[in-house]
Specification:
Helix content: 40-55%
Bound molecules: zinc ion
Number of helices: 4
Shape: globular
Structural class: mainly alpha
């Protein structure tokens, strides 16, 4: 199998160099202002959004918390759909 050895695995190289950023606004994520947040991964976006809402919109944060208590998957599912639909930059 040594004959097929390649210095660069193009898939890995592509992933390494191409780190797409996605930008979403507070409103898009269920908040109430136009603040834009940029993240490389959906996990990072959730963290940024949560921090932003707790800091800037305590009422919305409370509603989200209640919604989350009722159905822990609802916000996450909706968020994932929005994240996937957002084009990478
Ligand atoms: Zn906001």
């Amino acid at each position: 199998m040594h004959a097929s050895y390649a210095i660069f695995n193009t898939d890995t190289l592509f992933t390494y160099i191409y780190n797409p950023m996605k930008t979403m606004t507070c409103k898009e994520l269920g908040g109430e202002c136009d603040a834009a947040m940029t993240a490389e991964t959906s996990e990072e976006m959730v963290k940024k959004m949560t921090a932003h809402v707790m800091e800037n919109h305590p009422d919305t944060a409370k509603k989200m918390e209640e919604m989350h208590a009722e159905d822990p998957n609802k916000w996450g599912d909706e968020f994932k759909k929005k994240w996937d639909a957002t084009p990478a930059e």
